[in-house]
């Protein structure tokens, strides 16, 4: 009998259902406030969280591979340099066609340099009168070599300290400009993956055929999905002038945005191209504006001496930057955001109750029925008089 | 006295505790519905959010550095080319051993090119009868140089327009294949960091010793953590044939997945290797299939003229792609997800109440005790008759 | 009349407001527990979620471009090699100045290699007595070429198998160290974008002028925002010694942290530099410690034979790694986190109710007024006696 009673008590404990007592108030005003607040919360959840922010989606960032291939040739024939024909192997450095490629557009060529001694270029710190002005072994980071301690004639008018260096030194005045580079074209092949969603895509779209690819050229209006770009167009889409940029060099970003909504009801996932200059072209607050670097081709003369042709290469580095976030419906963010929204629904009664007891016409009546006040000195269940049922009980008990 | 009253009212306002009046219903049915719904929500939270999605974790993405070093040599001896021995310095371009390295597997070599004039390769647009067919200064992007306006004998049977270019022109037929490249091995050294968790790891595991590293070779079954890979194995794991791929070239991704659960109760954090061809090998919808680029080695002849050897290099670019997301217990996502789950717990009484007043056998009794209806024209606290306490009050007050 | 009644019922259904009946308990103890629990939750939300974790922000990861330019020159004059002057075009490989640049600090030069035959370097597997020990066509991956099957004199004391290779073979003992490399400086230009917030910034800060940039040098204390770094300082900030590292080479990470709070009330968004060695320098568990690679310069002799100078280049690869997450106030994460917090506020009454019915002094009184128990066999609204209102009703109804 005892265990049966115990079991019964457990059942009561576990399965008795405790539910709040409620009061139904037939007030249009309060009801309207309640429903309107509810409506606002639901609108917010549906409209903003779900439609605008797509908070029901799980997201992943893109992994991508890029191959680039430049085509075109140029011919330079200026007074400073020999006439020369340039093809891809000459002006693309490095040649691999990675996600970042450099197109040589301007250069200072210093041929036939050998390891020897020659007078420095004239500058306030290198001009000398006699050997006493030059310190053997001194190397000025802004100079071109290690001083030998001698003072030599640089020209008929100037004497400068002699340095140990690759001589003759580079004189940064004779430029050879590849103006024709603006008509080079580049084919960009880009494959992307969203590993979380096992989603693969290429920027050469499936419905595109080979003959189209052979003749097309990117144009935002007419051919927005052609992967072949004319360099001039890229630069002008970035708001720059190719010939201006060619002189000092620069860095140009080809941004491919693969942000996609992968849910089946959303449209197709297509790349969006945009172009932006990435370096700072303004001369203010700028050291070494533009983009250039020096490299050398090494030769050996017939008697085994090493010579080099130093090239200060100005040009445009094109960085293909692939970015994007894909979203697809997933249960966890949906639950999290729905949970947050439901929390706000639980705020609605707070608003409505506040309206009920402060603003509604019959607020006294409503709060009298809704709220029971226990008096402070209550011991034998005495309550304040505006609590109807309990006061009533008092009434009867004192009967 | 007044301030004391004011203070008292404040205390009442701040510390009076308002709690809902509740009704306990000893119904097994309703109780079961209530507990079962609760159980479902708790199961969802524990099972799906915590165990499957690990929503209690904060996450970080990987930062990584890769060094690669290829070993092996090859010997080519075809009828088209001179016998030649190839080592790492010859076939790895660029030589640095970055996260992306290219192994030369096939090439078209055009030696002794000089800047001069020569007749174009025959094609419908270059074949000519006399000089009138050739336009001086015209440069066809699909051609090889700038037309001089002359029409020259290309062979005994064909006449083509002469171009200014690097001559002789490249003829894309004489290939030299490095078949032995499939036996080259590559050592991949990869260090990763999860900066948010201050977690560092290498793909050479701590328990591995140097003698093992000197002789091991990656094999998914027997040596899954050896960082030395045979190129042939990489390609065949990606579902391709090395010799096929060597001819036209391609891009092969070596994917290292460092996705880890960094909580102490989870296992060790180990890299997982996978291999995937990244370019599109199918000839449909494909321009320039495979992977190749042109580069040149520049020489000077004894009399100072520049010549070059043009190499059209086909080969496999191996891209080491490191990715991964690590998770570790963190209080904020835990709170957010618990919060969302608790919101769902607050839905449980809604379900149980609905069951109570619509489906349970004694629904009339329950709703009579649970809900009090104020009548619409209530002014002097008149209520509908099935609200016991209030109607009772009326009864007495009308007494 | 019927439709009017129907409409009225719909209005009642839609706009009748159902609110819980509540009991106000004037107990300081319970009130204090309630307010204190509320306070704890609010503190947690404000203090931890909002201030520490900034959970009210939407986040985005950085997209960046890096250009580097090294300056400086060196002179080597050891007994092993000819005196030689080194400038940027000689020691920066590749020359482009990408986000990853390599500074040559030590090298083994093997000049005048030609394709020919020579005896292997002596090792247990290459030493031979006569031709029978050598297998024609055999190529040992750890050797230097393909065996011809002959056994030749390597020196007066040792005979080794002859191989077909680039001869003479590299002998890894004559090093040429560029000790002066520690004084080279590098200018790092870094532009970043947070695309989601349309936020662009450079590591050359707007208030910095050109004259400062021409003379400044990074120093954590005095010039923390100068983008020009002395290589020696980078290495020593990473806890390494430049001269030690120069011998075997290594990889050094220049980490630029652009983690920013983009809210207007937060401070400026500035890059934070840190430096860390990325490869493993310890000889334990290490194959090929340090960082080196082989490359060759190709020459042609007067009679057209190809020769090369093989260079085993040791040096430091500097990887500029840009990372960071920016946060800016956004409504969705704010709502989600507030929602989660509000869920916890709904836990507060549970705690207070539990305290009310178990710990408070007058718990019997409180629970008698708060909770009404329906008896199990209730059919005609019979309830247990401690539910005052209902028992009262019974009293009267049985009257």
From TrEMBL, chains A, B, C:
One of its GO terms (cellular component) is plasma membrane. One of its GO terms (molecular function) is purinergic nucleotide receptor activity. Keywords: ATP-binding, Cell membrane, Disulfide bond, Glycoprotein, Ion channel, Ion transport, Ligand-gated ion channel, Membrane, Nucleotide-binding, Receptor, Transmembrane, Transmembrane helix, Transport. Glycans are attached at residue 183. The keyword Magnesium does not apply. ATP binds at residues 69-71, 185, 292-294, 312. Disulfide bonds join 118-167, 128-151, 134-161, 216-226, 260-269. It holds the Pfam family P2X_receptor. It catalyses: Ca(2+)(in) = Ca(2+)(out). It is found in: Cell membrane; Membrane. It is a multi-pass membrane protein. The chain crosses the membrane at residues 335-357. InterPro entries: P2X2_purnocptor, P2X_extracellular_dom_sf, P2X_purnocptor, P2X_receptor, P2X_RECEPTOR_CS. One of its GO terms (biological process) is calcium ion transmembrane transport. Homotrimer and heterotrimer; functional P2XRs are organized as homomeric and heteromeric trimers. Homotrimer. Forms heterotrimer with P2RX1. Forms heterotrimer with P2RX6. Forms heterotrimer with P2RX3. Receptor for ATP that acts as a ligand-gated ion channel. ATP-gated nonselective transmembrane cation channel permeable to potassium, sodium and calcium. Activation by extracellular ATP induces a variety of cellular responses, such as excitatory postsynaptic responses in sensory neurons, neuromuscular junctions (NMJ) formation, hearing, perception of taste and peristalsis. In the inner ear, regulates sound transduction and auditory neurotransmission, outer hair cell electromotility, inner ear gap junctions, and K(+) recycling. Mediates synaptic transmission between neurons and from neurons to smooth muscle. Belongs to the P2X receptor family. This is P2X purinoceptor. It comes from Oreochromis niloticus.
